[in-house]
């Protein structure tokens, strides 16, 4: 299992860099991972809105939300989501939210 | 319909040659390609977006609705069924320079009646043969 070192901590990730243990996630994990995902500086309020929405949705339903639902519930345009997370809602936002690699969802 | 010629250019890269146009299609490096062009799935989504856009533009021209600089932003989700991967969800936002107001529904209808959407909705009969 590949490992990822971030901010002095070691995390087990899959071959695409998705966290393998949801309980190892912390806000610091997301912030430390952000620069590797092409996000400069501190995560903004909107970044956190999306990350927290994805985590809450996952906790309730066990899967990541569909993209359209995510856009509507967070009131974000698709283009804006890609501006915030250059690698997109699946490869970027879900990764920072600590989810395993989504299949059939964002 | 003109012939669409797809020629291997090495690795996972192909050139597409149709009428007097040529472009490259490739896989991203993390998918084993050399990233010399968009992926086949991205081309499919681009075809969908530009077809929707063309139909909306045509309607807007007729209805005299401002549409210069119209933008479509699209993405897709895949799903894995056994060993098969397919696009399960295509999502797009359409931006016009002005809100078309009461004609919004007509604008969307124009876009939703495009050839690529109709094709994806019904699924064409596909007939491939090994030509040796």
Topology:
The complex is a heterodimer of chains A (106) and B (132).
Chain A: E1 3-6, E2 9-12, H1 27-34, H2 45-61, H3 67-74, H4 78-84, H5 88-96
Antiparallel strand pairs in A: 1-2
Chain B: E1 4-8, E2 14-18, E3 21-25, H1 40-63, E4 71-81, E5 84-95, H2 104-112, H3 115-122
Antiparallel strand pairs in B: 1-2, 2-3, 4-5
Helix pairs in contact in B: 1-2
Strand line-up of the largest beta sheet of chain A: 1-2
Helix content of chain B: 25-40%
Q: Give the ordered list of helices and strands of chain B.
A: EEEHEEHH
β-strand number of chain B: 5
Which structural category do the helix and sheet elements of chain B fall into? alpha+beta
Total count of helical runs of at least 4 residues of chain B: 3
Portion in beta strands of chain A: 5-15%
From the 3D structure, determine the CATH topology of the largest domain in chain B: GMP Synthetase, Chain A, domain 3
Tell me the major beta sheet of chain B: 3 strands, antiparallel
The CATH class assignment of the largest domain in chain B is Alpha Beta
Number of separate domains of chain B: 2
In whole angstroms, how far apart are the ends of chain A? 24 Å
**Unreliable runs of chain A, pLDDT <50, ≥5 residues?**
none
CATH architecture of chain A: Orthogonal Bundle
End-to-end CA span of chain B: 24 Å
The name of the CATH architecture of the largest domain in chain B is 2-Layer Sandwich
Query: What is the top-level CATH class of chain A?
Result: Mainly Alpha
Approximately how much helix is present in the residues of chain A?
A: 40-55%
Which oligomeric state applies? heterodimer
Overall average pLDDT of chain B: 95
Q: Averaged pLDDT of chain A, please?
A: 91
Structure, explained:
The complex is a heterodimer of chains A (106) and B (132). Chain A has helices at 27-34, 45-61, 67-74, 78-84, 88-96, and strands at 3-6, 9-12. Chain A is mostly helical and 106 residues long. Chain A has one domain: DsrC protein, C-terminal domain (Arc Repressor Mutant, subunit A, Orthogonal Bundle). In chain A, a hairpin with a 2-residue loop joins strand 1 (3-6) and strand 2. The model of chain A has no long low-confidence stretch (mean pLDDT 91). Chain B is of the alpha+beta class and 132 residues long. Chain B has 2 domains: 1-37; 39-122, GMP Synthetase, Chain A, domain 3. Chain B is built from 3 helices and 5 strands; from the N terminus they run βββαββαα. A 3-stranded antiparallel beta sheet of chain B has the order 1-2-3, with no helix packed on it. Chain B is globular and about 55 Å long. The chains are: A mainly alpha (106), B alpha+beta (132).
């Amino acid at each position: 299992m590949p490992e990822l070192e971030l901010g002095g901590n070691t995390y087990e990730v899959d071959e695409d860099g998705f966290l393998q243990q949801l309980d190892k996630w912390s806000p610091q994990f997301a912030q430390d991972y952000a620069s590797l995902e092409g996000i400069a500086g501190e995560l903004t309020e909107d970044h956190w809105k999306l990350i927290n929405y994805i985590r809450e949705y996952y906790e309730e339903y066990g899967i990541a939300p569909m993209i359209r639902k995510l856009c509507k519930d967070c009131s974000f345009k698709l283009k804006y989501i890609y501006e915030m997370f250059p690698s997109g809602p699946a490869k970027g936002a879900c990764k920072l939210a600590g989810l395993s690699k989504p299949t059939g969802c964002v | 319909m003109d012939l669409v010629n797809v020629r291997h250019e090495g690795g996972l890269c192909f050139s597409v040659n149709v009428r007097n146009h040529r472009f490259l299609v490739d896989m991203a490096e993390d998918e084993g390609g050399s990233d010399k062009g968009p992926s086949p799935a991205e081309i499919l989504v681009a075809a969908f977006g530009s077809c929707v856009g063309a139909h909306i533009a045509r309607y807007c021209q007729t209805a005299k609705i401002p549409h210069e600089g119209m933008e479509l932003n699209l993405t897709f989700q895949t799903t894995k069924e056994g060993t098969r991967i397919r696009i399960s969800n295509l999502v797009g936002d359409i931006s016009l320079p002005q809100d078309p107001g009461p004609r919004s529904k007509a604008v969307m209808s124009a876009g939703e009646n495009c050839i690529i959407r109709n094709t994806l909705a019904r699924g064409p009969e596909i007939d491939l043969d090994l030509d040796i």
